[in-house]
Amino acid sequence: MTQKARPTANQTAAIEKALREEFPGWSIICTRDTGRWWALRGPGPGELVQHGASAAEADTPELLREQLRAYVRAEAD
Q: Which among 15, 33, 34 is positioned nearest to 23, based on CA atoms?
């Protein structure tokens, strides 16, 4: 099995920025030691309880984006 090369620090920062812009309200994290991608969010301003998903994790930013898009679709229904 071949492993995909991890993005550089600059590439990671650009990917994180793009994900934050596409999914406002989510904190995007890529762990340096494992290269795993995370998205976290809490209740919005003035809310006491988080409605919908509050976390997602994936091996790649593409898979994380797919999960977050699925959350957005589910919350729109």
A: 15
Q: Is residue 42 a contact partner of residue 25, using CB atoms and an 8 Å limit? A: no
Residue 33 carries which DSSP code?
T
Instruction: Dig out the tokens for 50 from the structure.
Output: 């988080």
pTM: 0.85
Q: What is the mean pLDDT of each run of 10 residues along the chain (77 residues)?
A: 74 97 96 94 80 92 98 91
The residues pairing with 52 across neighbouring beta strands, listed in sequence order, are none
Domain-wise residue ranges, the chain: 9-76
- How far is the C-alpha of 54 from the C-alpha of 60, rounded, in Å? 18
Q: Which two tokens stand for residue 52?
A: 């919908």
Q: Which residues pair with 30 in a beta bridge?
A: 37
15 with 30: CB under 8 angstroms? yes
